[in-house]
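Researcher: Please generate the 3D structure of the following complex. Treat every line as part of one assembly.
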Amino acid sequence: MPDGKNSVRPFAVLIKALALFLVFNFTFALPIFRGIYRLSLYNTILPGRYGFGGAADLDLMMAANMLSAPKEVDEFRVFLVGDSSVAGAGLDTRDKVVYLLDALHLQTCDGKTIRVYSLGSPFKSFVKDLLILDRAMEYRPDLIVEFVTLEAFTTSRQLPPTVIQQNPQHALALIDKYHLDVQPPEGYLFPELTQNHTLIGERSKLSAWLSENLDAVRWASGFDDRSGEDEEGAVKNPGDDDLTFNGWTPPVLPENELRFDLMRALFTAAGDIPVLVVNEPILILAAGRNSDIRYDVNYPRWAYDQYRRIMIEKSAAEGWPYLDLWDAVPAEYFGNSSFHRQPQGERIVADQLIPVIQTLSCP
Amino acid sequence: MDWMKKFLGWLFSRENLMALALCLILILLVIVTADYKTAWFLYGDF
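Model: Done. Output below.
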């Protein structure tokens, strides 16, 4: 008769394996295991990214970003917040504005090194920016640069971003914390609230966590994924002759419907940290059908011109540091969308930001 | 400490180790077969 140590009963192996799986499955629901998502190869044994990785989960986003590395004593942190153009969609890392600024290692007047981090993620939405900034404040910024554009001020743009849908608990807490006047459609932010935290319930997030850590190895080995590259020649035309914007018709842009309340929530989240508001460059098409009434596929001229006037007046009245870069980038330096820039466009934006960041870093 | 030796012998028996290996394979399968788009640009957000 074989001894107990070396005999193997296939059916017993199966039963024991299933029992172990059940134990692991339910044990994983203990709160202590929520911290697993903060464990990352990024910023530990491998370098972090100049921005977020591919995941839309807040824990994983922060873990991949260089900003989650410990802050140096002589470091002055600048956070760039905004949409996919801030994330540098479609560009190699070395061409992105965040890299161009960070690589300069600018100095503040008291000798601190200015380090620049990107919190850019797809979609023009203040609620999405607020969700990310509110979480990122624990990484102690010294200056926040918020990139804005007219679309971000519309109510309809606020809740669709994937980052909001993937973090419903955080989003609902955010709406409550800042008393945001946004109404998620029935059930829109609900499903994950009932999700169990067992291993099976968390399998999607675990899959993303695993994938992010594999990406960390690819990133450290020099692979640059150029995420979000657009299709060739997508929208290099001003669009049709429709003069409406967001359902608004000329001649007057309804200022009271622009979501300045949501932008102010960003200032609230920033607390004592200064916030520079940058009106991001848009594609200005000077020729072509309908270019006399539209700047690009997004903006009729009447609406955008009034938005710029309102922004200048508001920032002056409320004392916001404001930089209007709307026409800073020539049309040929845009990528294949109306707001993603080519490397030359990124260089222009970086050059415009340098003196302003230096000024604001020396109060 | 004879009982300890026996217990460890049972705990690390080939059968138990095979059960653990099978369990870990199951866990890995559950994770890697989950549907999760890990790149935001796949969502169509811009």
